[in-house]
Specification:
The structure holds three protein chains of three kinds. By secondary structure, chain B is of the alpha/beta class. Chain B is 34% helix and 23% strand.
Chain lengths: 307, 256, 315
């Protein structure tokens, strides 16, 4: 395998990690503050992509679509919170899992009903269609670099919000000990709505950014959601820093593993067997990594919750 | 004194800047009822948690039945014969009183990796469980779901669970907590009836009750043991009286 | 006789399934549907055993089915088709997977456990998808159903119906006995009050892991039957949505006893079948029903009569 391929795959892994982080950030905060497990967080990502596709088709502009899609995902998130989620805070995790699974079923089919079953395409913004020469004869798409940059900027903003503002302080305190924060007279429900809406919008943002490079289709959020679960389990529930590092780790392992595992297997096996075993191994890699990390640190890399 | 059932040697524990257990050493003799008293925040429950293995200690040694158990977790100490009750009632609400107690008997009766015979039909378990329920006066409530019992009955059941393990040492964390006057009287009578047959360490706020049933009392203040002795000696100890100055629930002068 | 009365719903249901082929439900289409319902009920019973019995809410139980089904596929590819070999291998494969993943997952609890089982289930799914030798995403068509003593007796619809019913009954009885045994008593105690169980000297871990492995083995057996029922296996059968559906069956029926899983699974499959014929986007209705069931049926369908009774008495 060439160094160039490694570099490209490294950048792709970084980009996947960034998208994962945007989805995982909201999930881990919602978990941390409300002890609420939301399987339907992935549909926010899908909705972001669908809104982007819809608004882009209507306005012929990716940028206007981006601006419209963000409040739209925020709105859907708040409506879901109002209709379903807030009735589940006092229930056990199993009830939360099932009801939010129901939300997934509704929305995955709902987008098919509204937008048709065929996958949608979102054209790349014209300004970012080119590529950046990272080596002789190799261009890395501007757009993917823009995703990395936009994601990093958002991560920075999030870090500032959580670490440096009053609301952020409450969120961190809530993740450590929610009853304590409630006892201090903070309206924890309003705090949660805020965290929830913001998390939904971040996931939607990730969906908008991913829309031009993926096909927009029902169920696209589900697989990403499970990767996001792996991310927050590895990072430690409630920890933004943990989510960030774990997201990059998972993104890189996932992407590089798919490239490298078959090559590595070729050292031991004949080519066709190596391809099969390598592919199987690559798909297991992040879960093996998760298991290894949990074996040593059952609460994740950066545990937040006071036991 | 016969060899101690439980021996604490220089236990220390800190939570951040707060020393909650400060050089505590103590011997508990077989068959005695040993009460640990002290003002609020003295670290009594912490000490119980350290002895039973819920909380690790920073330094010191805990000897139980001649064995060093300092590093053993809760369930291993339990298997050596250390039974404990909890300050907040800890029973299994969905189980009947009988099944709660039979589970405790089962803990000391061979392996629980038996998969096919219904446990509810094992006569040996049920007989021993009924005997324990009888000892605390709950035999007539054997079939009642524990979750549906009154508070006082739950405390009695908790005692039956502890007795059913045939423990070498009973650790009781505020066995009278939340009990009304009548219930308290009944529970004190029960505990006094166990004297000599069981070794009991208990933490309790109700001073009247403590002085009525304890053979020896240890006084804990800010994590330190300031005195250990018979109720009469404790009553006369000036340091103890100073520690309790201003608290009005102390019957130090009262006759029992 | 108290046992008989308590288990009457389950016994009646099993008896009805036994009579169904002779009571006008003997058509191929209906038997296929019932076989599917019974096989999923088997998986649901094993899931109910660990959720209701041990408090282990697994969102990766479909992977157990998957290991059983893919054991059939891989052995079929090697031309090993005798059920006496294939079934034990299917159960051992699933149990082995349960042992390895359970050993890690059971060290955690609550939400961590849910997410980790989900992740391991997804791992099984993607691994199955990457097995290009067995059709990858497109799945693998079996040459034929497994043989018993060299005969193709399982291909007979009626025989297969009763094999599924027998397997379901056996799974239900087994889980029942396990929950009533000393072992099961400790499991239930750990679920009800882990601190109390530990203070009595029971370490939860080995009991939970054992239960998880047993449930895995039953799931593997269900996977074996599933592959035989459809004669086709694809990764889509073991996606995480399937795990969610299994959990839904368990909750829909109610957790108060294993019969809830039976009722839930049959109700689920029949409802799914009916809705799918009504509207292309039936899953939306399904999602709404799921949310309503969680919000308004805390004790599931099995608890519905008692719930209605309470409401009536309250006026």
């Amino acid at each position: 395998m060439s160094l160039t391929l490694l570099l490209v795959q490294g950048l792709n892994g970084l980009q996947l990690g960034i998208l994962l982080f945007l989805v995982a950030a909201g999930l881990t905060l919602v978990f941390g503050v409300m002890d609420f497990i939301n399987l339907a967080h992935g549909v926010q990502y899908m909705l972001g992509a669908y809104f982007a596709a819809y608004f882009a088709a209507q306005t012929d502009s990716f940028w206007i679509a981006l601006l419209l899609a963000l409040p739209a995902t925020l709105l859907v998130g708040l409506v879901l919170e109002f209709l379903v989620f807030r009735h589940l805070y006092d229930r056990d995790h199993m009830a939360q899992v099932l009801a939010t699974f129901g939300v997934i079923l509704i929305l995955n089919d709902g987008v098919k009903l509204l937008f048709g079953s065929a996958p949608l395409q979102v054209p790349m913004p014209a300004a970012l269609t080119g590529g950046f020469p990272i080596m002789d004869g190799l261009l890395y798409p501007h757009y993917r670099l823009a995703i990395i940059a936009g994601g990093l900027a958002t991560a920075g903003l999030l870090w500032w919000l959580v670490e440096r503002t009053r609301v952020g302080m409450l969120i961190r305190a809530g993740a450590t000990n929610a009853p304590m924060v409630a006892a201090l007279g903070v309206d924890i429900r309003r705090l949660f709505m805020l965290v929830f809406g913001f998390g939904a919008m971040l996931a939607g943002f990730a969906g908008v950014m991913a829309a031009p490079i993926l096909s927009v289709e029902a169920g696209m959020g589900d697989n990403l959601l499970i990767l996001a679960f792996v991310v927050i389990v590895i990072g430690g529930i409630g920890s933004i820093r943990g989510a960030f590092l774990a997201a990059l780790l998972v993104g890189l392992v996932e992407t590089l593993g798919r490239t490298m595992a078959p090559d590595l297997m070729r050292l031991f096996l004949d080519p066709s067997a190596a391809r099969q075993v390598g592919a199987a191994l690559a798909s297991m890699l992040i879960y093996i990594a998760m298991a290894a990390i949990l074996a040593f640190r059952p609460a994740g890399l950066f545990p937040v919750r006071a036991s | 004194m016969a060899e101690a059932v439980l021996a604490l040697r220089s236990l220390r524990k800190r939570f951040g800047a707060l020393t909650v257990t400060d050089d505590v050493s103590l011997d508990v003799a077989p068959g005695e009822i040993h009460a640990i008293i002290g003002p609020n925040g003295a670290g009594k429950t912490t000490l119980i948690n350290e002895i039973s293995g819920v909380l690790p200690i920073d330094s010191g040694r805990i000897l139980f039945a001649g064995r060093d158990v300092t590093g053993l977790p809760l369930h291993r100490r339990a298997r050596l014969g250390l039974a404990r009750s909890f300050q907040i009632t800890s029973i299994i609400p969905a189980f009947s009183a009988l099944e709660n107690t039979a589970l405790a008997v089962q803990a000391g009766d061979g392996t629980s990796f038996r998969f096919f015979r219904p446990a509810a039909t094992e006569r040996r378990l049920n007989t021993a469980a009924m005997a324990a329920l009888d000892q605390v006066g709950l035999a007539h409530r054997a079939a009642t779901p524990a979750g549906a019992m009154s508070h006082g009955e739950k405390r009695q059941l908790e005692l039956a669970i502890a007795l059913a393990t045939q423990p070498r040492l009973l650790l009781l964390d505020e066995p009278l907590a939340g009990a009304g006057p009548e219930e308290t009287e009944r529970l004190v009578g029960l505990l006094r009836g166990l004297r000599g047959r069981y070794t009991i360490v208990l933490v309790e706020h109700d001073m009247q009750a403590v002085f009525a049933m304890a053979d020896r009392i240890s006084v804990l203040v800010y994590g330190r043991l300031i005195a250990t002795g018979t109720p009469d000696r404790i009553r006369e100890n000036p340091e103890v009286r100073a520690a309790y100055l201003g608290e009005d629930d102390i019957p130090l002068m009262a006759s029992c | 006789m108290g046992w008989l009365r308590k288990e009457a719903p389950a016994l009646l249901l099993l008896a009805a399934l036994g009579l169904a082929p002779f009571a006008g439900f003997g058509e191929g289409y209906i038997l296929t549907l019932l076989a599917r319902a019974m096989i999923l009920a088997m998986a649901a019973v094993s899931l109910s055993f660990i959720v209701g019995g041990a408090g282990l809410v697994s969102l990766g139980h479909a992977a157990m089915l998957g290991f059983g089904a893919y054991a059939v596929v891989i052995l079929d590819d090697l031309q090993v088709v005798d059920a006496m070999v294939v079934l034990p291998v299917a159960m051992l494969a699933a149990a082995g997977f349960a042992l390895v993943t359970g050993a890690i997952a059971i060290r955690t609890s609550g939400v961590h456990f849910i997410m980790i089982t989900l992740a391991f289930g997804q791992m099984a799914f993607f691994t199955a998808s990457s097995l290009s030798g067995y059709g990858g995403d497109d799945g693998y068509t079996l040459y034929a159903r497994s043989e018993v003593n060299g005969t193709r007796i399982l291909s007979d619809r009626l025989v297969f119906h009763f094999v599924c019913l027998g397997a379901l009954t056996a799974s239900w009885l087994l889980c029942h006995m396990l929950l009533a045994s000393r072992f099961g008593r400790v499991l239930r105690a750990v679920r009800g009050n882990p601190m109390r169980a530990q203070a009595l000297g029971f370490s939860p871990y080995p009991y939970r892991l054992t239960a998880y492995v047993i449930a895995g083995a039953i799931g593997g057996a269900a996977g074996f039957l599933f592959a035989n029922a459809t004669e086709f296996v694809a990764p889509a059968y073991i996606s995480w949505q399937r795990s969610g559906e299994l959990l839904f069956m368990v909750i829909l029926g109610g957790l108060s006893g294993l019969h809830g899983a039976l009722i839930g699974a049959l109700g689920f499959v029949l409802l799914e079948e009916w809705l799918a014929h009504q509207w292309e986007h039936w899953r939306m209705i399904f999602g709404v029903l799921l949310i309503l069931a969680v919000l308004f049926l805390p004790h599931g369908l099995a608890g519905l009569p008692a719930q209605l009774g309470r409401m009536l008495r309250r006026g």
